[in-house]
């Protein structure tokens, strides 16, 4: 049973040892699997890319460049409103319609954030390729389903009507 | 010296929040004060969160909603991006060090991320006062959980369940304190999958990440070693919060003027907090966090009930 207060050293309890001995040798090596390593590298590069993009576009917005639809100085009039009232008051677009407005600095900002929201999918596509190659069917299915879940969320099909 | 730093962080944090709370009720404050105050507050949250070993967004949402004039919709949207950015910046190192296991992350993340969509939709549909009551009750419960939960460094487990065996979940990591590899596996995966559905709903609904719930489930229920539980939880957040973050983004509930300073402040603060951790492990900071959570939770509860402090 789980001993919530136990703190073991590298010498495991006999139960744990017997369990572990049944695992494959791959599981007893602290070497990182190639697919996990690749996934981590993708997260690292893409997340920093997203954060830098977010920072640059935010500085443009704060500098008053690219003609924001709502000036930073006017935002305090609206940020206390609910998202539905905010959308009505500022004529903010819903779903992906903001993409058509990226010539305005406040929507240009969303590119970096949207990119951060896409990083996991990029990593999962790499994983899907690796698991297909390894013919690891359960993980192929789960990774494919996860991509579908995130892409569905990103697609805007789950939308709450104003006042909802 | 270290204790002095911690004390100063706590003092600055309290002073900042008091100043912000006073400013929130004062008209005529220049607009740029808010993003700057948010940057400073989230920077301090990042330090405190890293020192206390908690996720930044579990402090971010209740504290910012207590002291800043932003609507809860925008704070929750930002909270998810805060959790997402922190997770994305920490996960690569954890995965490359084998402190996180993708074979464990993938099944749990699938259910948590799918259910976080439902949580986000629910959260965006409920009135603010109801959400504040629920948030207050949740944050107060998390504070109590922090008081009573005792994680286990390397839990003893029985046989892994059939599903964990089928998915071949397990691994090994290098324990620097002993210089040896520690092998691990998990059990009770089906029960954990059910719990992760609930965790996903809560994460999406309140925008508070889910490390506070992930770690106890991974460590105490599933029997993953604490280091694996923390690393896997951090890697899970990058996926769980992504689905919910997209719902908030598509709904227009992500205002860059709130989100960007928050993400930057917490990321920089948590990096400094991690560096301070190398010097010492102050238990006192954990009690400060518990007090902050209790205060913010009760304030949110009272705000939701219409009681002004």
UniProtKB/TrEMBL annotation, chain A:
Keyword tags: Membrane, Transmembrane, Transmembrane helix
Residues spanning the membrane: 39-62, 107-127, 139-160
Name the UniProt record assigns to this protein: DUF1634 domain-containing protein
């Amino acid at each position: 049973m789980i001993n919530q207060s136990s703190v073991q050293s590298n010498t495991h309890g006999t139960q744990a040892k017997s369990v572990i001995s049944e695992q494959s040798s791959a599981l007893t090596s602290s070497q990182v699997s190639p697919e996990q390593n690749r996934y981590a590298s993708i997260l690292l590069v893409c997340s920093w890319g997203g954060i830098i993009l977010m920072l640059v576009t935010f500085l443009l917005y704060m500098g008053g460049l690219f003609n924001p639809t709502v000036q930073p100085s006017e935002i305090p009039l609206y940020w206390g409103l609910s998202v539905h009232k905010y959308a009505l008051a500022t004529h903010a677009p819903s779903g992906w319609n903001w993409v058509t407005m990226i010539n305005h600095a406040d929507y240009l900002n969303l590119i970096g954030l949207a990119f951060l929201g896409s990083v996991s999918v990029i990593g999962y596509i790499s994983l899907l390729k690796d698991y297909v190659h390894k013919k690891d069917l359960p993980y192929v299915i789960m990774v494919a389903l996860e991509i579908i879940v995130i892409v569905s969320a990103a697609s805007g099909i789950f939308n709450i009507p104003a006042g909802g | 010296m270290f204790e002095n730093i911690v004390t100063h962080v706590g003092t600055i944090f309290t002073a900042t929040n008091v100043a912000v709370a006073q400013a929130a009720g004062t008209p005529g404050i220049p607009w740029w004060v808010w993003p700057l105050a948010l940057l400073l507050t989230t920077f301090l949250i990042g330090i405190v969160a890293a020192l206390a070993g908690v996720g930044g967004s579990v402090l971010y949402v209740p504290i910012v909603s207590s002291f800043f004039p932003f609507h809860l919709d925008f704070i929750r949207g930002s909270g998810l991006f805060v959790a997402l950015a922190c997770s994305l910046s920490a996960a690569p190192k954890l995965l490359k060090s084998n402190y996180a296991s993708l074979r464990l992350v993938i099944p749990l993340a699938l259910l948590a991320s799918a259910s976080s969509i439902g949580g986000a939709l629910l959260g965006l549909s409920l009135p603010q006062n109801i959400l504040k009551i629920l948030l207050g009750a949740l944050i107060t419960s998390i504070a109590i959980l922090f008081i009573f939960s005792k994680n286990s460094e390397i839990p003893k487990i029985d046989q892994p369940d059939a599903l964990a065996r089928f998915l071949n979940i397990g691994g090994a990591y290098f324990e620097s304190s002993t210089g040896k590899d520690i092998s691990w596996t998990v059990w009770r995966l089906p029960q954990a999958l059910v719990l992760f559905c609930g965790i996903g709903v809560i994460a999406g609904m309140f925008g508070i990440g889910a490390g506070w719930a992930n770690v106890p489930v991974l460590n105490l229920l599933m029997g993953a070693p604490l280091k694996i539980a923390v690393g896997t939880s951090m890697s899970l957040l990058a996926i769980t919060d992504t689905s919910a973050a997209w719902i908030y983004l598509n709904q227009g509930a992500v205002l860059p003027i709130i989100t960007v300073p928050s993400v930057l402040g917490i990321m920089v603060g948590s990096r400094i907090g991690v560096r301070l951790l190398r010097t010492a492990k102050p238990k006192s900071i954990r009690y400060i966090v518990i007090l902050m959570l209790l205060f913010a939770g009760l304030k949110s509860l009272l705000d939701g009930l219409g009681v002004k402090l």
